[in-house]
């Protein structure tokens, strides 16, 4: 039997969401947990690549933040049930687990809604400033994850 220091005890809120079937238990695997975090790190690094379009960098940054959010929930042995609104719920839960500010939560939820709008537009526009703000938020969330879950970062 292998034990892990990465698996965290579920919070009361997570247990309630599990009971209401908004979250589901996930078979925990340390490699998968570290892969979520690695994907977040790589995506946020790639979002800083100036050769990519601003929209491409925005999408990559958002996916990196979402990978961090899924990884944060997964560290508690759960994942969201894929249904309407599950992405926003995962972001909100993770930002609460990471003790991020309400302003950061509002910013990333706004980015999530903006991402949905971009997907439906053929000529969507994006500024480098907007991308930089989202990447900075992702970097802050990673820094906070390092504080909250130090065993996951070597």
Describe the structure.
With 154 residues, the chain is mainly alpha-helical. It has one domain (12-152): Nucleotidyltransferases  domain 2 (Four Helix Bundle (Hemerythrin (Met), subunit A), Up-down Bundle), CATH 1.20.120.330. The protein has helices at residues 12-19, 30-46, 54-74, 86-97, 102-120, 128-148; strands spanning 23-25, 78-80. The chain has a two-stranded antiparallel sheet. Helix 3 (54-74) crosses helix 4 and helix 4 (86-97) packs antiparallel against helix 5 (102-120).
How does the SSE layout of this entry go?
Layout: H1 12-19, E1 23-25, H2 30-46, H3 54-74, E2 78-80, H4 86-97, H5 102-120, H6 128-148
Antiparallel strand pairs: 1-2
Helix pairs in contact: 2-3, 3-4, 3-6, 4-5
Notable traits:
154 residues; mainly alpha; 6 helices
Structural class assignment = mainly alpha
Low-confidence stretches: none
Residues in helices, as a percent range: 55-70%
**Percent strand:** under 5%
Count of separate DSSP helical elements: 6
Instruction: State the end-to-end CA separation.
Output: 23 Å
From the 3D structure, determine the CATH topology. Four Helix Bundle (Hemerythrin (Met), subunit A)
CATH architecture annotation = Up-down Bundle
Radius of gyration, rounded?
A: 16 Å
Trace the largest sheet across and list its strands: 1-2
CATH class: Mainly Alpha
CATH-assigned homologous superfamily: Nucleotidyltransferases  domain 2
Please provide the ordered H/E string of secondary-structure elements.
HEHHEHHH
Label the overall shape: globular
What is the total tally of β strands?
Answer: 2
Mean pLDDT across all amino acids: 91
Domains counted in the coordinates: how many? 1
Largest sheet: 2 strands, antiparallel
